[in-house]
Amino acid sequence: MSLVIHDPRELRELCRGWARTGATLGLVPTMGNLHAGHVSLMRRASAQCDQVVVSIFVNPKQFGPREDYAAYPRTLEADQAICDKNGAGVVFAPSADDMYPEGFATTVSVAGLTEGLCGASRPGHFDGVATVCARLHGLVLPTRAYYGEKDWQQLQVVRRMNEDLGFGATVVGVPTVREDDGLALSSRNQYLGAEEREAALCLWTGLQAAVELAKAGPGPAERFEEAVADVIAGEPLAELEYVSLVDPTSLVPMARLDETGRLLVAARVGPARLIDNIALVPGGE
Ligand code: AMP
Predict the structure, then answer these.
(1) Whose CA is nearest to atom 13 of ligand 1?
(2) Which contiguous run of DSSP H or E holds residue 97?
(3) For residue range 101-112, what is the model confidence (pLDDT) as tens digits?
(4) What residues are paired with 261 via a beta bridge?
(5) Alpha-helical runs (H) found in 21-75
(6) Would you state the pLDDT for residue 242?
(7) C-alpha of residue 150 to centroid of ligand 1, in Å
(8) If pLDDT is split at 50, 70 and 90, which confidence band does 284 have?
(9) Residue 285 clears pLDDT 80, i.e. is over it
């Protein structure tokens, strides 16, 4: 059975004790409502680390005032059972007051990387992410911290934060786990009705169209971005927010695909805001 901890000080003491014994520690930060994507992170962590901490915390700081903080699915009991089965020795499930006690006054803000893409339409979101992840990295001091490639911009922001603040973790990016038809698993897929669920596939179909074009070789960024935009425009239930070809690490927009880039897309489908991304390799398989 996983040990459930709510108190940050207790978590810190436990992790410091493990570190003194020379154990390697893996951290898997989540907002709970665990699915096979999260399980993939946990399994990777338990294969590579002696002790694994999964945090389950719906972080109020990363939700905007008109976003789904109150509605976000909270399923702690089912989540604990999934952690038990997948090698997480500790489930850290603090309350908002545990994480941000009275007087908490620090914001971690990563410049540059957070300005475009999802940062443009979700002001403050990545400050919330960087702040909670810094707090978690500081409490656990993990040897390795595991984040999903599904949230590509978040992964780059956390890498930068971890490096700049000297936490010393190796940040591991884990490939996106998908439904059989290609839709990226996400807790927010539950917001979709049956027709919307069908429509949501257009993000993946669009990205696949761009991958096919990239196989033919290099070209201007718009060629690949338009391929995605066209597929999404053909789906009446979906509304494109952005599609952008960027450098995979710096997230700076690429004018052309001459070397490997990352194509990121966000779209609204009914009540859900969905994101996805893929590597684009000119001339690649
Ligand atoms: P969340 O609970 O949605 O905040 O996600 C927690 C972690 O799981 C983040 O690092 C996400 O990138 C990762 N994650 C979410 N969905 C997937 C997925 N479909 N495949 C792989 N990782 C994922």
Answers:
(1) 148
(2) helix 96-99
(3) 999 999 999 999
(4) 280
(5) 36-48
(6) 98
(7) 6
(8) confident
(9) no
Structure tokens at 217: 């070789």
How far does the centroid of ligand 1 lie from the alpha carbon of residue 174, in Å?
9
Give the residue, out of 151, 158, 180, with the most ligand 1 atoms within 8 A of its beta carbon, to mutate for a pocket test. 151
Residue with tokens 């490639």: 149
Q: Residue 50's pLDDT is what?
A: 98
Instruction: With cut-offs at 50, 70 and 90, classify the pLDDT of residue 91.
Output: very high
Taking the CA of residue 31 as reference, the ligand 1 atom at the shortest distance is 2
| Ligand 1 center to 185 CA (angstroms) | 8
| Residue 88: φ, ψ to 5° | -90, 110
- pTM above 0.70? yes
Q: Which residues are paired to 273 by β-bridges?
A: 268
The answer to whether the CB of 185 is under 6 A from ligand 1 is: yes
- Ligand 1 pocket test target in 57, 76, 150 with most atoms within 8 Å of CB: 150
Average pLDDT, the chain: 97
- CA-proximal residue: ligand 1, atom 14 (nearest): 148
Question: Does residue 120 have a pLDDT over 90?
Answer: yes
Q: Once rounded to an integer, what is the mean pLDDT over residues 50-58? A: 98
Q: How far is the centre of ligand 1, averaged over its atoms, from the C-alpha of 219 (Å)?
A: 31
Catalytic residues: 38
Please give the structure tokens belonging to residue 116. Answer: 């475009």
101: left (phi over 0), alpha (psi -120 to 50) or beta: beta
Where does residue 234 rank: exposed (0-12), middle (13-18), buried (19+ CB within 10 A)?
Answer: exposed
Torsion over CA: 26, 142, 146, 56 (sign):
positive
Tell me the longest C-alpha to C-alpha distance in the chain: 57
SS3 55: strand
Mean pLDDT, rounded, for 197-222: 98
Q: How far apart are CA 266 and CA 198, in angstroms?
A: 16
